[in-house]
Amino acid sequence: MKHFSLLILCALVLLALGQSAAAEPRDETDRVLERMAGTWYDEARCAVLTIEGRTINGCEVVAMEDWVGGLASGGAKFRIREAGGECMRTGCEVGTREDRAGGLASGADSRTREAYGERTLGIGWKLFGGAGDYITLAGGDALQRTLTPDYFESVGGVHFGMRTRTVQEILGEGKELSREEPCHAGDMSFSQGLYYPDKRLIVFHEKGIVTGLVLLRGSKLRFERSGLMANDSRKAYARAYRLPQIPEESSRSMTAAYSIAPDENLSFGLNGSYVMLSIYEN
Protein backbone atom coordinates (compact mmCIF):
# COMPACT_ATOMS: atom_id res chain seq x y z
CA MET A 1 0.00 0.00 0.00
CA LYS A 2 2.87 2.35 0.83
CA HIS A 3 4.47 1.63 -2.55
CA PHE A 4 1.18 2.33 -4.30
CA SER A 5 0.75 5.62 -2.43
CA LEU A 6 4.31 6.60 -3.32
CA LEU A 7 3.66 5.90 -7.01
CA ILE A 8 0.52 8.05 -6.90
CA LEU A 9 2.46 10.87 -5.23
CA CYS A 10 5.24 10.69 -7.85
CA ALA A 11 2.69 10.75 -10.66
CA LEU A 12 1.02 13.83 -9.21
CA VAL A 13 4.36 15.61 -8.82
CA LEU A 14 5.34 14.82 -12.42
CA LEU A 15 1.94 16.00 -13.66
CA ALA A 16 2.27 19.25 -11.74
CA LEU A 17 5.78 19.81 -13.12
CA GLY A 18 4.56 19.16 -16.66
CA GLN A 19 1.68 21.60 -16.30
CA SER A 20 4.02 24.21 -14.84
CA ALA A 21 6.41 23.84 -17.78
CA ALA A 22 3.55 24.03 -20.27
CA ALA A 23 2.27 27.17 -18.60
CA GLU A 24 5.59 28.98 -18.88
CA PRO A 25 5.18 31.96 -21.22
CA ARG A 26 7.11 31.91 -24.48
CA ASP A 27 9.90 34.43 -24.65
CA GLU A 28 10.05 37.33 -27.10
CA THR A 29 12.23 35.40 -29.53
CA ASP A 30 9.61 32.65 -29.88
CA ARG A 31 6.83 35.19 -30.40
CA VAL A 32 8.71 37.04 -33.15
CA LEU A 33 9.83 33.86 -34.93
CA GLU A 34 6.31 32.44 -34.78
CA ARG A 35 4.97 35.55 -36.51
CA MET A 36 7.62 35.21 -39.24
CA ALA A 37 7.19 31.44 -39.65
CA GLY A 38 7.26 30.18 -43.23
CA THR A 39 9.42 30.31 -46.35
CA TRP A 40 10.32 33.73 -47.72
CA TYR A 41 11.03 34.41 -51.41
CA ASP A 42 12.89 37.16 -53.24
CA GLU A 43 11.92 38.88 -56.49
CA ALA A 44 13.60 36.12 -58.51
CA ARG A 45 11.24 33.62 -56.82
CA CYS A 46 14.11 32.02 -54.93
CA ALA A 47 13.47 30.73 -51.42
CA VAL A 48 15.88 32.73 -49.27
CA LEU A 49 14.77 32.04 -45.69
CA THR A 50 12.76 29.29 -44.06
CA ILE A 51 11.77 30.06 -40.48
CA GLU A 52 10.39 27.15 -38.49
CA GLY A 53 10.13 26.84 -34.73
CA ARG A 54 13.30 28.31 -33.28
CA THR A 55 15.36 27.79 -36.44
CA ILE A 56 16.29 29.83 -39.51
CA ASN A 57 17.23 27.71 -42.53
CA GLY A 58 17.65 24.76 -40.21
CA CYS A 59 20.05 26.58 -37.89
CA GLU A 60 19.22 27.12 -34.23
CA VAL A 61 18.45 30.68 -33.15
CA VAL A 62 20.64 31.27 -30.11
CA ALA A 63 19.43 34.77 -29.26
CA MET A 64 17.53 37.81 -30.53
CA GLU A 65 19.28 41.11 -29.88
CA ASP A 66 18.69 44.85 -30.47
CA TRP A 67 14.95 44.43 -31.04
CA VAL A 68 13.24 47.65 -32.14
CA GLY A 69 9.56 48.20 -32.85
CA GLY A 70 6.93 45.56 -32.15
CA LEU A 71 5.51 42.28 -33.40
CA ALA A 72 3.76 43.87 -36.40
CA SER A 73 6.58 46.18 -37.49
CA GLY A 74 10.15 46.02 -36.25
CA GLY A 75 13.60 44.58 -36.61
CA ALA A 76 16.24 42.67 -34.68
CA LYS A 77 19.52 40.81 -34.94
CA PHE A 78 19.28 37.04 -34.68
CA ARG A 79 22.28 35.01 -33.58
CA ILE A 80 22.20 31.59 -35.20
CA ARG A 81 24.35 28.53 -34.59
CA GLU A 82 25.41 27.03 -37.89
CA ALA A 83 25.05 23.29 -38.28
CA GLY A 84 28.29 21.82 -39.59
CA GLY A 85 29.79 25.29 -39.96
CA GLU A 86 27.36 26.50 -42.61
CA CYS A 87 23.71 27.42 -42.48
CA MET A 88 21.55 25.33 -44.79
CA ARG A 89 20.54 27.15 -47.96
CA THR A 90 17.13 26.93 -49.53
CA GLY A 91 15.78 27.53 -53.01
CA CYS A 92 18.00 28.90 -55.79
CA GLU A 93 21.76 28.84 -55.81
CA VAL A 94 22.93 31.84 -53.83
CA GLY A 95 26.51 32.01 -55.01
CA THR A 96 28.09 35.23 -53.78
CA ARG A 97 24.82 37.04 -53.04
CA GLU A 98 25.51 38.49 -49.60
CA ASP A 99 21.86 39.26 -48.99
CA ARG A 100 20.90 35.59 -48.84
CA ALA A 101 21.05 33.26 -45.92
CA GLY A 102 24.23 31.30 -46.60
CA GLY A 103 26.57 34.26 -46.67
CA LEU A 104 25.06 36.69 -44.21
CA ALA A 105 27.20 37.85 -41.35
CA SER A 106 26.37 41.24 -39.90
CA GLY A 107 29.25 43.31 -38.58
CA ALA A 108 32.44 42.56 -36.70
CA ASP A 109 30.49 40.84 -33.93
CA SER A 110 29.44 38.13 -36.38
CA ARG A 111 32.93 37.70 -37.78
CA THR A 112 34.24 37.15 -34.27
CA ARG A 113 31.63 34.49 -33.64
CA GLU A 114 32.23 32.65 -36.92
CA ALA A 115 35.06 30.75 -35.26
CA TYR A 116 32.44 29.40 -32.85
CA GLY A 117 29.97 28.50 -35.63
CA GLU A 118 27.68 31.50 -35.07
CA ARG A 119 26.45 34.28 -37.34
CA THR A 120 24.21 37.29 -36.85
CA LEU A 121 21.36 37.96 -39.27
CA GLY A 122 19.74 41.39 -39.34
CA ILE A 123 16.04 40.89 -40.11
CA GLY A 124 13.34 43.56 -40.38
CA TRP A 125 9.63 42.88 -40.72
CA LYS A 126 6.25 44.43 -41.47
CA LEU A 127 3.57 41.84 -40.79
CA PHE A 128 0.04 43.22 -40.59
CA GLY A 129 -1.65 40.12 -41.97
CA GLY A 130 -2.24 41.00 -45.62
CA ALA A 131 -0.77 41.03 -49.12
CA GLY A 132 1.76 43.70 -48.13
CA ASP A 133 3.53 41.54 -45.53
CA TYR A 134 7.29 41.31 -45.96
CA ILE A 135 10.59 40.85 -44.18
CA THR A 136 14.05 42.13 -45.11
CA LEU A 137 17.46 40.60 -44.70
CA ALA A 138 20.37 42.93 -43.90
CA GLY A 139 18.27 45.90 -45.06
CA GLY A 140 17.80 44.48 -48.57
CA ASP A 141 14.69 44.28 -50.73
CA ALA A 142 11.50 42.70 -49.46
CA LEU A 143 11.15 38.96 -49.08
CA GLN A 144 7.59 37.70 -49.36
CA ARG A 145 5.98 34.64 -47.86
CA THR A 146 3.95 33.96 -50.98
CA LEU A 147 4.72 34.40 -54.66
CA THR A 148 1.09 35.40 -55.32
CA PRO A 149 -0.10 37.82 -52.58
CA ASP A 150 -3.81 37.47 -51.84
CA TYR A 151 -4.99 41.06 -52.30
CA PHE A 152 -8.54 42.44 -52.13
CA GLU A 153 -8.59 45.72 -54.06
CA SER A 154 -6.51 46.99 -56.98
CA VAL A 155 -6.21 49.95 -59.34
CA GLY A 156 -5.09 49.67 -62.96
CA GLY A 157 -3.81 46.15 -62.30
CA VAL A 158 -1.68 47.34 -59.36
CA HIS A 159 -2.22 45.82 -55.91
CA PHE A 160 -0.57 45.37 -52.53
CA GLY A 161 2.44 43.07 -52.53
CA MET A 162 3.15 43.62 -56.24
CA ARG A 163 6.81 44.22 -57.02
CA THR A 164 7.69 47.82 -57.91
CA ARG A 165 9.45 46.59 -61.04
CA THR A 166 6.20 44.98 -62.21
CA VAL A 167 4.29 48.22 -61.56
CA GLN A 168 6.73 50.08 -63.78
CA GLU A 169 6.35 47.46 -66.49
CA ILE A 170 2.58 48.06 -66.41
CA LEU A 171 2.38 51.84 -65.89
CA GLY A 172 5.81 53.14 -66.86
CA GLU A 173 8.68 54.51 -64.79
CA GLY A 174 6.70 57.22 -63.02
CA LYS A 175 8.17 60.17 -61.15
CA GLU A 176 9.70 59.49 -57.72
CA LEU A 177 8.25 62.01 -55.28
CA SER A 178 10.42 63.69 -52.65
CA ARG A 179 10.26 66.45 -50.04
CA GLU A 180 11.73 68.81 -52.59
CA GLU A 181 9.21 67.77 -55.25
CA PRO A 182 6.01 66.54 -53.56
CA CYS A 183 2.51 66.13 -54.93
CA HIS A 184 -0.13 68.31 -53.23
CA ALA A 185 -3.71 67.12 -52.75
CA GLY A 186 -6.10 68.87 -50.38
CA ASP A 187 -4.00 69.87 -47.38
CA MET A 188 -1.67 66.89 -47.89
CA SER A 189 1.79 66.85 -49.45
CA PHE A 190 2.77 63.40 -50.65
CA SER A 191 6.56 63.25 -50.59
CA GLN A 192 7.12 59.61 -51.41
CA GLY A 193 5.95 57.12 -53.99
CA LEU A 194 5.81 56.88 -57.78
CA TYR A 195 3.66 59.63 -59.29
CA TYR A 196 1.88 59.22 -62.63
CA PRO A 197 0.59 62.72 -63.53
CA ASP A 198 -1.32 61.57 -66.63
CA LYS A 199 -3.15 58.92 -64.59
CA ARG A 200 -3.53 61.05 -61.45
CA LEU A 201 -2.16 58.14 -59.43
CA ILE A 202 0.48 57.73 -56.70
CA VAL A 203 1.90 54.30 -55.89
CA PHE A 204 3.56 53.96 -52.48
CA HIS A 205 6.31 51.36 -52.25
CA GLU A 206 8.72 50.06 -49.63
CA LYS A 207 11.67 47.75 -50.16
CA GLY A 208 10.55 46.98 -53.69
CA ILE A 209 6.85 46.17 -53.14
CA VAL A 210 3.59 48.16 -53.28
CA THR A 211 2.29 49.39 -49.91
CA GLY A 212 -0.31 51.97 -50.93
CA LEU A 213 -2.25 53.67 -53.74
CA VAL A 214 -3.65 57.20 -54.03
CA LEU A 215 -6.29 58.09 -56.61
CA LEU A 216 -6.26 61.85 -57.09
CA ARG A 217 -9.31 63.89 -58.04
CA GLY A 218 -9.85 63.78 -61.79
CA SER A 219 -8.26 60.35 -62.27
CA LYS A 220 -10.03 58.13 -64.79
CA LEU A 221 -8.80 54.99 -63.04
CA ARG A 222 -11.14 52.92 -60.90
CA PHE A 223 -10.90 50.61 -57.94
CA GLU A 224 -11.34 47.37 -59.83
CA ARG A 225 -13.47 45.49 -57.30
CA SER A 226 -16.03 48.26 -56.70
CA GLY A 227 -15.67 50.21 -59.94
CA LEU A 228 -15.52 53.48 -58.00
CA MET A 229 -13.41 56.50 -58.94
CA ALA A 230 -11.86 59.30 -56.91
CA ASN A 231 -14.73 61.61 -57.90
CA ASP A 232 -17.41 59.28 -56.49
CA SER A 233 -19.10 60.22 -53.22
CA ARG A 234 -18.11 58.88 -49.83
CA LYS A 235 -21.67 57.60 -49.53
CA ALA A 236 -21.08 55.47 -52.64
CA TYR A 237 -17.92 54.05 -51.06
CA ALA A 238 -19.79 53.23 -47.85
CA ARG A 239 -22.41 51.37 -49.86
CA ALA A 240 -19.95 49.51 -52.12
CA TYR A 241 -17.68 48.31 -49.30
CA ARG A 242 -20.46 47.90 -46.72
CA LEU A 243 -18.90 50.34 -44.31
CA PRO A 244 -20.80 50.90 -41.04
CA GLN A 245 -20.94 54.65 -41.67
CA ILE A 246 -20.28 57.29 -44.30
CA PRO A 247 -16.51 57.91 -44.11
CA GLU A 248 -15.18 61.15 -42.73
CA GLU A 249 -12.60 63.17 -44.61
CA SER A 250 -8.99 63.01 -43.49
CA SER A 251 -6.61 65.91 -43.01
CA ARG A 252 -2.99 66.45 -42.15
CA SER A 253 -3.87 66.49 -38.46
CA MET A 254 -6.36 63.62 -38.46
CA THR A 255 -6.55 60.44 -40.54
CA ALA A 256 -9.80 58.48 -40.61
CA ALA A 257 -9.14 55.03 -42.08
CA TYR A 258 -11.82 52.48 -42.94
CA SER A 259 -11.04 48.79 -43.29
CA ILE A 260 -12.36 47.08 -46.42
CA ALA A 261 -10.34 43.86 -46.02
CA PRO A 262 -7.55 42.53 -43.78
CA ASP A 263 -4.61 44.92 -44.09
CA GLU A 264 -6.42 47.17 -46.62
CA ASN A 265 -7.84 50.55 -45.55
CA LEU A 266 -9.45 53.50 -47.31
CA SER A 267 -9.14 57.17 -46.37
CA PHE A 268 -10.55 60.26 -48.07
CA GLY A 269 -8.94 63.65 -48.65
CA LEU A 270 -10.50 67.02 -47.90
CA ASN A 271 -13.09 68.17 -50.42
CA GLY A 272 -12.73 64.99 -52.47
CA SER A 273 -9.08 65.67 -53.27
CA TYR A 274 -8.03 62.01 -53.15
CA VAL A 275 -8.94 58.47 -52.10
CA MET A 276 -6.09 56.50 -50.53
CA LEU A 277 -5.81 52.74 -50.17
CA SER A 278 -3.22 51.89 -47.55
CA ILE A 279 -1.91 48.99 -45.51
CA TYR A 280 -1.73 50.98 -42.33
CA GLU A 281 -4.72 52.23 -40.38
CA ASN A 282 -3.08 55.61 -39.72
Automatic annotation (TrEMBL):
<feature type="signal peptide">
    <location>
        <begin position="1"/>
        <end position="22"/>
    </location>
</feature>
<protein>
    <submittedName>
        <fullName>Uncharacterized protein</fullName>
    </submittedName>
</protein>
<keyword id="KW-0732">Signal</keyword>
